[in-house]
Fold:
Amino acid sequence: MTVGEEMRRKIANLVSGRILFDEPMCNHTSMGVGGKVDILFYPRSAKEVEKAVSFLVAEDIPFMAVGSCTNLLVGDDGYRGCLVSLMDLQQFEINEESDRRVSLFAESGVPLSRIVEVSVKESLEGLEFCAGIPGSVGGGVWMNAGAYGREMKDTIGSVVVVNGNGKRRKIEREDLPFEYRGLDLPDSTVITGATFDLLKGEKEEIQRKIVNILQSRRDKHPLGERSAGSVFKNPPSSPAGKIIDEVGLKGTMSGRAMISEKHGNFIVNLGGATTKDIVALIDIIKKRVFEQKGIKLETEVKIIGE
Ligand SMILES: Cc1cc2nc3c(=O)[nH]c(=O)nc-3n(C[C@H](O)[C@H](O)[C@H](O)COP(=O)(O)OP(=O)(O)OC[C@H]3O[C@@H](n4cnc5c(N)ncnc54)[C@H](O)[C@@H]3O)c2cc1C
Structure:
């Protein structure tokens, strides 16, 4: 898509936040790969998200929401259309619901590390599992991010979304179609914030859980290298990392991408990898695992663009 001067002017008048044209997504993805997106913009309020979505729909411009881009691969030839980044939506608030229950509302751009930090400070239980997950609230909810036996769906009270028609609405937990590493809403849905239902707890106990989780992550994951976390969903039979190890693929390289020696379900960028290199490794893994184990692995990372 060529974004002409006229369109650039219209878009510039639309929101007060940053707007980048022809922006290389390798500057934004945790993997450090990805070509140029036509338009990357950063609404500064939920109201601006509504305006942006209404405009993009009316102009028939393809779009999708992004957060910290820690679960995202963008094609080497980029993404034609608009990526709406929620990272400038940073408000949050805590409300005491009863002697025991507290709700924490956070806008989509708030890092998960921040809500973990706040919950420790306020002695709130329920978000310990998010420790060490490098995404944002919006991305975490969209992915139903999880670890150590818990997922977003276990603590979410409600989510605020802007629909494909540009209207904002709140969806209560019981109406949210969460699935394993996903939320089954139309792709045009933009999450602007979420409320987490938390319990008052013991600060030392909460801290102890978090320290253990962070230590376990350091022991198991290649945290010093650029990755997008787990590449594949775990099939019911066994963790994907274990299966990839069993079929002997750890350490396999394609260009400058490598299946981590430390954890089979991580692909790391050794510096200078392309999305093509990573997708080639994904294909090698899928093929070998199916041939040797009869298991069809499904990707957890989102691959978009060309
Ligand atoms: C080192 C490392 C460790 C990780 N460990 C874990 C883990 O333990 N568990 C786990 O589940 N994940 C893990 N991840 C993956 C990732 O951090 C999570 O999936 C995270 O929740 C993604 O958030 P994000 O803001 O980066 O989303 P992005 O990568 O920006 O987007 C991911 C998907 O969510 C959609 N999305 C993002 N924001 C919104 C929004 N506001 N509204 C609608 N859709 C949106 C995007 O369109 C895309 O489809 C890890 C990643 C890394 C790099």
